[in-house]
Specification:
Length: about 400
C-alpha cells in the first residue's frame, strides 16, 4: 500500500477514534489516526467516570492493565443552596448491577495508554496535526487534507468530538447551535492519598462519584461534579453555553464558587490545583443524528451526537467506544466486498439503533420526569430504585 494510502483514516484520537482503529488493526487493516493534540488525550477532558463494559470487549484484561484511578463504589447526589445542601448517598445492592464496573479516569494518561496499545496492534498515529478538510470526489469522501498533505483511504471515520466541523463538511450534520452544547470547566486537585481516603471514607482503590446540582449556588443551569482519583480530585462545573454572555460569573468563578461552598470546601481543604481544563459537551439526552454515514465516511462518538448530559448524569465515553467498535465492524464487512458506498455503510446506523446506546439515552431522559413526581417520595423502595438507576447512568 502506498505511504499516503490506507484502508481507513480516522480523524481524532479520542476514545471513539482509538477504539475503531484498534479493532481494525487487530484484523490486519492499515489504519491511520490523525490527532491534532501533541499526544492522544492531551486535548481531551472528561468528568470523569468511565463505564468500562465496552472497552472490556476490546481489551478483556483492561481492569488489570489500564491506568484506572479508583473503582466507583459510592454514589452521592447533592442539592445546594448558596450556604447549605442536602446530600443523598445511595447504598443499594442494585448498584453495580447494570454496568458493574465504573472507574474514575484522567484522560491524558488513559488515552495515551490506549493509543500505545493500539499502536502495538499496528495502528499508525500522527499527532500534532489538524485535519483541515476532506477530499471529496463525486460526493464520495476519499481522504483527508492536513496542511500541504493529502492522504487517501477506502473509508474515513470522523471521531473528531463534539465540535464536528469535518462532519459538517461531509454534509452529515449542521453547525452546532448554542442550545445544543454546554461547556465544562474542571480542576484536578492534588491531595495526600491517606487524607483523601479518610475524608471520603474510602478504602484503598475505592472511589466516589458525586453529582452536585446547585441552581442557586452556581447560577442558572449550572451543575457540579466531583470524582476521586488515586491522589487527586476531579472537580468541575458544567453550564449552558448560551447563558455565559449574560451570566454573573465566568467559568473560573463558577468552579471557585463550588470549591468554596461549605458542603465541598472541608473535603478539598489543603489541596493544590495541578491541572485546569475546559471543554464543550453535547447537552440533553443526546440526539443521534439522522445520518451517521455517507459515501466513504462514518461518524462516531460525540461527533455523532452519542452522549448523555442531563445534569444528574454525564456519560459519553462508553458510548464513544461502542460506536467506534461498531464503525470498525461495519468497515470490516465492507472491506470484504470492497463496497464503501453509503448503502453498504448504512448497516452501521442499524447496528447503533440495535445497541444499548439509544435505549440508555431514552432511559436516562426519563429520570427527570420520575424525580419530579412527588408521589415518588412517599415510596422509599421506589425512590431508591430510581436514584440507583440515576446514579448508575
Ligand atoms: C465536563 C465534562 C464532563 C464529562 N464527564 C463524563 C463522565 O464522567 N463520563 C463519561 O462517560 N463522559 C463524560 N463526558 C463526555 C465524554 O468526555 C465524551 O463523550 C467523550 O470524550 C467523547 O469521545 P470522542 O472520542 O467522541 O471525542 P473526544 O474525546 O472529544 O475526542 C475527539 C478527538 O478529536 C481530535 N480532533 C478534533 N478535530 C480534529 C481535527 N480536525 N484534526 C485532528 N484531530 C481532531 C481532538 O483533539 C480529540 O482528541 C464529559 C465531558 C465533559 C466536557
Amino acid at each position: 500500500m502506498a505511504e499516503d494510502r490506507f484502508d481507513a483514516i480516522i480523524v481524532g484520537g479520542g476514545l471513539a477514534g482509538i477504539a475503531a482503529a484498534y479493532r481494525l488493526a487487530q484484523e490486519g487493516l492499515e489504519v491511520l489516526v490523525v490527532e491534532r493534540g501533541n499526544t492522544c488525550g492531551s486535548k481531551n477532558m472528561t468528568g470523569g467516570r468511565l463505564y468500562t463494559h465496552t472497552l472490556e470487549k476490546l481489551i478483556p484484561d483492561l481492569l488489570q492493565r489500564a491506568p484506572l484511578e479508583r473503582r466507583i463504589v459510592k454514589e452521592r447526589f447533592s442539592l445546594l443552596t448558596p450556604s447549605s445542601g442536602t446530600t443523598i448517598e445511595v447504598d443499594s445492592a442494585k448498584l453495580g448491577g447494570l454496568y458493574a464496573n465504573s472507574y474514575s479516569v484522567l484522560r491524558a494518561p488513559f488515552d495515551r495508554w490506549l493509543a500505545d496499545e493500539a499502536e502495538a496492534a499496528g495502528v499508525m498515529f500522527v499527532c500534532g496535526v489538524l485535519v483541515d478538510d476532506l477530499i471529496i470526489r463525486d460526493g464520495r469522501v476519499c481522504g483527508i487534507i492536513a496542511g500541504e498533505e493529502e492522504m487517501e483511504a477506502d473509508v474515513v471515520i470522523l471521531a473528531e468530538g463534539v465540535n464536528a466541523q469535518l462532519a459538517q463538511k461531509a454534509g452529515l450534520r449542521e453547525e452546532l447551535q448554542p442550545d445544543q452544547v454546554e461547556v465544562g470547566a474542571k480542576e484536578v486537585l492534588s491531595l495526600d492519598q491517606a487524607v483523601l481516603e479518610d475524608r471520603f471514607h474510602l478504602a484503598p482503590g475505592e472511589g466516589i462519584a458525586w453529582i452536585i446540582r446547585g441552581e442557586d449556588a452556581f447560577g442558572p443551569g449550572a451543575n457540579g461534579f466531583l470524582y476521586t482519583n488515586k491522589d487527586t480530585i476531579s472537580l468541575g462545573v458544567v453550564t449552558e453555553i448560551g447563558k455565559i454572555p449574560s451570566a454573573q460569573h465566568s467559568m473560573v468563578e463558577l468552579v471557585d464558587l463550588l470549591k468554596e461552598h461549605p458542603v465541598v470546601a472541608p473535603l478539598i481543604a489543603g489541596s493544590k490545583t495541578v491541572e485546569y481544563s475546559a471543554h464543550l459537551l453535547p447537552c440533553g439526552q443526546g440526539a443521534i443524528l439522522p445520518r451517521l454515514c455517507g459515501d466513504g465516511v462514518l461518524l462516531a462518538g460525540d461527533a455523532a451526537g452519542l452522549a448523555i448530559n442531563l445534569g444528574y448524569v454525564v456519560r459519553g465515553m462508553d458510548l464513544a467506544v461502542e460506536s467506534g467498535l461498531l464503525c470498525a465492524e461495519t468497515v470490516l464487512k465492507c472491506h470484504e466486498t470492497g463496497d464503501f458506498s453509503r448503502d453498504a455503510l448504512s448497516s452501521y446506523e442499524t447496528a447503533i439503533q440495535n445497541s444499548f446506546i439509544p435505549r440508555d439515552m431514552e432511559r436516562c431522559g426519563s429520570y427527570a420526569a420520575q424525580l419530579g413526581n412527588k408521589a415518588l417520595y412517599d415510596d422509599p423502595a421506589k425512590l431508591i430504585d430510581v436514584l440507583t438507576a440515576v446514579m448508575q447512568g
